[in-house]
Amino acid sequence: MIPPMASSLPKYPGGEPRRGEGAAPPPHRAAGAGPILVLNAGSSSLKAEIFTPGLESRFAARVLEIGGTATFRTDRLGEQRAAAPDHDAALALVLDAAAAAGIALAGLSAAAHRVVHGGAEFAAPARITPRVLAAIESFIPLAPLHNPANLAGIRAMTRLAPALRQYASFDTAFHATNPDLATTYALPPAERARGIRRYGFHGQSYAGIVGALAPLPRRLLAFHLGNGASLAAILDGRSVATSMGYSPLDGLVMGTRSGAIDGMAVLRLAEIHGIAGAARLLNHDSGLRALAGTNDMRALLARSDPEARFAVEHFCYWAARQAGSAIAAMGGLDAIAFTGGIGEHAAPVRARILELLAWAGPVPVHVVPAEEERLIAAEALALMRAGQ
Fold this sequence. Notes:
37% of the residues lie in helices and 18% in strands. By secondary structure, it is of the alpha/beta class.
């Protein structure tokens, strides 16, 4: 039985949260006095959840296919069609539904956002100020598929509630403790100076695992398996290696991403399809979808055709093969943890990965529910209570 996540902010090994710089708008409520809205904005989606200061979930909603045939779902109303031409309209849907559930915008004490890329600068969550916003924008070349969407959520919130405190939690922050040996590409100094290095992602998910396991195993191999998939080597609660690199494309086979691929193969694809075409192919048309026609692991496990069986085995093989590298980075293995949609719910996938890792010896195995939104709320709450 996994204990509930602590209500305090998990300690980021990269240091204490930094104070934001520049002018910040006045708060709606006293620090921590009202609910916290957590937003996770994708390029065509918006997930939202509202937590009390005690980190109890009071409302959840999501808008999918923003800019197209949008659908809107809440934890109370189910799914329905909706008009959401942009993130502003999607956020308005969320706030209207929250108000109908008894949580008014004016009663919120803060909004907290998932931001995928914090570069090398942000090793901890931060209050969003003009300087922080400019930094997130400057990282767009490092995460062109993610940071623009995260910024869209922040700006939509600013337009609708300019006086509300806002905070950012960075996917990359948890991996700030990776040593230079693990993060450095063997490139000329000028290219390294451009920020081309390994960063790692899914940080909130891994921080949640660390906060949930008590006692915490010294050498923990953690898998976040979902449509996006990665693993992390966590030594004494600190990330020392991870499978994703410069971008979330690298590492394990994923739902629509190729995972690790030779750089010359990428150049050949760019030569054939153009840079934009190659980027779309590698990020949206590869992975499980390319191998078996779908990125839905449940559907693949229900099929018996050779393509589906190969796709599942390919997913598990590369997860286990790259896990060997993570075990080497920790100097051994004391426990394994799974989280994410596939990691939590696809028992055959867990079983096959564990079978392929049997050489590492018997160790405890944990399945930890992903609670990234609750962690983001906890981080914002801690910053507020620290006077930020």
